[in-house]
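Hello,

I think I submitted the adenosine-5'-diphosphate job twice by accident. Can you confirm which output corresponds to this input? Input:
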Amino acid sequence: MIKQKKQGQLIVISGPSGAGKDTIVEKVIKKNENIWLSVSATSRKIRKGEKEGVNYFYLTKEEFEERIDNNYFLEYAMYADNYYGTPKEEIIKKLDKGIDVILVIEIEGAKKIKELVPEALFIFILPPSEKELLKRLSGRQTEDKEKIIKRFNIAYQEINEVTKYNYVVVNDDLDEAVSKVESIIKAEKCRVDRIEEMLVSNKEELIHEFLMDEEFDNSLISEKIKEEI
Ligand code: ADP
Ligand code: 5GP
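Support: Only one job matched these inputs. Its output is below.
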């Protein structure tokens, strides 16, 4: 009856560092084959446990700037003194194939995506409290105290941007947060603006087929209905 857009959905996920974005997205990706996580490029140093091409493509500042000049990024931004950017090419291919694409990016990058792709889905992840955010930032053991404080300060500015997003998910219980993000993505697929075409079947033909079916006793159909047919 309806033909829906084949194009994949672009999903932007932001939120303060330490809120749990990567943890949530990793679980969503594992459970949903038709969602692809875009791997960004960054000029920040690789963390213990991270892998080149899996978590990020790690570049020097000079290499990053060369790629900016070559129009390699869909968007890029500076965060805590380092560049972060979304490579363009693979995203367009995936969306054209009908695969949903998740970008986990900070708010300046998300603003650029909003300008470029207004129909993208924007989800903001929040921690249950500021105290818990600080605990998660330090518990992760990926930054020294100075860098943690820098990220915590940025978080206070980022939180003010939450109302610019379509949805907010508080990441208190992890499974609950994952389930909310999955539900939001599923609901988005049912939006009426994803209808490309209304396909109306031939009514007379269907009624005729129905009347010809020997299983039904046509003598029971009233004269009024017969006239309407
Ligand atoms: P982000 O990607 O937003 O910077 P991470 O996904 O790296 O955040 O999570 C930060 C830390 O918080 C990690 O150590 C992670 O294991 C932990 N964490 C994530 N979600 C939860 C949660 N719901 N409850 C407790 N700890 C969490
Ligand atoms: P982290 O250093 O903790 O991995 O990331 C720091 C911040 O940069 C996070 O808010 C993360 O979402 C964001 N980020 C990661 N990749 C990109 C990107 O490609 N573009 C932008 N604008 N931000 C990104």
